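[job 4417] fold queue: 2 targets
>>> target A
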Amino acid sequence: MGLTDEQKRRFDADGFLIVPGVLTADQVRELRAFFRPKFGDPAVRTPGDTDRILFDIYNRFPEVRWLLFHPPAVAALRDLLGPD
């Protein structure tokens, strides 16, 4: 992936980083279609969730666990955090 020094500095300063190209447009569409209904479903909400944030998504929604091992995401994380 090869994040730039500027991207790494932004991550350090802001605590987050938008990395273009980690997900395809189709993957983004599928994830949005999956998650949008969850925000309006009180049965899905847990303490701490908001209208814009759902916590602990990988534990709660096994359908999205593939993101944890998605090669472009792993590459970006390795660039930010190192190989270990």
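>>> target B
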Amino acid sequence: MPRVFLDVDPRTLHVPTSRRSGADPYKLQRQIAKHGTSMQGMPTIEVSRGSDGEFMINNGVTRATRVAQLKPGALVRVEVIDDLPAPVGHLPTIGDLIP
């Protein structure tokens, strides 16, 4: 599969079943303290595209949460690493999990 990069609103990204409660609060606080609102040098968030066209995060739940909380409306770069045979739209999004 060719590499596909997109800019998306992190609030729309779905969390995987292993992270239904969202970002680890300790890790999130550490990232906020270290990076604040800066996205400079932030690694690309890896996502899978479900059969419904929605994106599920494979790597980067904490980064997506930090940007969604501290920079509302900012877009993040994601890399689509695979297409899933099942829909992922039923999973909670980052926007569902933050105030």
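[job 4417] complete. Note on B: The longest helix spans residues 25-35.
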